Amino acid sequence: MEPMAESKQNLKPVEKAGKRIRDKVGITIYILPNLLTTGNMFFGFFAIIYAIRGEYLWASYAIVSAAVFDLLDGRVARMTRTTSDFGAQYDSLSDLVSFGMAPGLLLYLWALQPFGRIGWLASFVYVACGALRLARFNVQQATVEKAYFQGLPSPMAAGIVASSVLAFTDLKLEAGRNYILLGMTLLLAFVMVSNFRYRSFKDIDFKRKMPFHFLVLGVIILIVVAIRPEVMLFVLFLSYAVLGAIFGLLRLGRPVRQKIRRDSDED
Length: 267
Description:
This protein is mainly α.
């Protein structure tokens, strides 16, 4: 074999390795949904900073804003057909910041710090269960049917934490060393990693005709919330979590039906 041909043959494995490296480094992503996911993480980080500063109301509003961006990124990705494995992983990491660390730290600094070690351990349990829920979803191919969540979604749990701050502030209640809030923290942690079924309402097609009483029910809920939004939203969200736990413990309702899904149930 000629020296020139032999040197070219030896370069082929090197060129292939270089191509693989370039492919990994030069990964292409969809900009719009991932920008929305970044907005989710931004407001989660914002909530952490303001919780540390003791501005708990602003931290609560930031968590709510993060939930809005989390809702939008999944919807936009599906509408524009720009879903990807990268987006799914990035969304989970952002959710851990916004709906794990942010509400966990907010709970500790706002209400659980006077409990001492029990307080920060309860906050850690909340964060750990949020992370476990996200990890479970990422590795679980067979998930609950579209109409139901398997366990309480982490954005809803974070929304309950944020609305509790708004409700306690509006009612002028003392949050420090409050056993109700301690119990709520542990309850939310438990139901996030449970197999309890929570209605997602994703199966409802609002473009189709529905019975008239659905509209009446919607108006009633709107009026009830409008009476005292900060308090009533907290009551509604917490009732959703508690009822799901009660039905799950009593094994009420149909058994969980499994099927393959790739879209995130956290949206």
